[in-house]
Amino acid sequence: MDTSAVLGIAERIDRIVTTDVGARRVIDPLYQWARARQGRPLCLLAAEKLLERAAKGKPVLIATGWPDRPNVSVSIAESDGPVGAAALARALHRATGAVPVILIEEQLVPAMRTVLQAAGLRAQALEECFLAAENRAPIHAAAILPLPVDPDEAMRAAEEFFRRHAPTAFVSIEKGGLNSEGRISTSLGADTTSSHGKADFFMRGALAAGMPAIGVGDGGNELGMGLIAAEIRQHLRHGDKFAPDLVPDVLVAAAVSNWGAYGIAACIAALTQDIDNFHTATIEEDMLRAAAGAGLIDGMTGWVEPSADGIPLPAQKAVVELLRTTVQLGLNPGRTESPLL
Question: Which intervals hold domain D-glutamate cyclase-like C-terminal (predicted)?
Answer without folding.
Answer: 40-324
